[in-house]
């Protein structure tokens, strides 16, 4: 990939969006320039690296220092137009040369520590993922040659505070940010890194022995599980809009039971076979409600009222007033049928359940008796 490819914007919904670079690229560039400064014994203000995807980045160096056989440098993270919790922060590297012949990489202040299995890094190690580890070590080795050794410490003074805005604590990464990135480049509007962070939580919980999992669109679902089901939130994983992806990941990891819990505004789409629930993908909420109300024999007047609603909440008022609350049990059953249809080629499909709740945290409906689902989750 050429530099022009990096500079060229990504077009999304008619807007030109600027690419950025990962914390892994920042750490690699900082380590490379710190090593170069020690060898040359002079301050350097710009450094080039080639990312794993083949893009050449020319990055400005901040806070460069040399003290004997030790160099320190920082690169400012730039997420382009895909701004995240680490955007704009400084990622530092401290490189100390020695005669050991080995490069030893560690995480310092603001870089998280791995406390659970399941993310591909040893418990107790710094949260520096495999690709950045390789690129950092390769960049330093290229600078210092085959015989010298170096201690490389990556640190980020703002890391602990910034990590509060990430999923790190749920992944068992405590005390700071992760140094991540597989390509070195941040592509605006990319869903892949978000989806991967969600599935990582599934992996960690499975590694810890969990066999039954509750998938929820967001925080309301977690509260419902805690308050109405009396279960610990440890069994809950956020799926956001990525319903199909997270179900497939749960199947891949060997979960025995998957329970989808959420407000009808999200879950009703699954009853229509929509497994990515963001409105930019598809929105057939009213059509789905109307179709299933009709199947249950609802009067034409109710169907018209629901079809003219803009929100699920407004439609639910008409449904309740007409005495069709049993619709939600019917929809929950339909959701499970849709999921099982998707998994029909799976050798050992998991038990699938679905529960819908209202904004005031009350149970609306489920595919089978609510208490049975709770009891199974307690096994």
UniProtKB/TrEMBL annotation:
Keyword Transferase: yes
GO MF term set: methyltransferase activity
Keyword S-adenosyl-L-methionine in record: yes
Pfam families recorded: CbiD
GO biological process: anaerobic cobalamin biosynthetic process; methylation
Family label: Belongs to the CbiD family.
Listed name of the protein: Cobalt-precorrin-5B C(1)-methyltransferase
Organism, as annotated: Phytobacter ursingii
Record gene name: cbiD
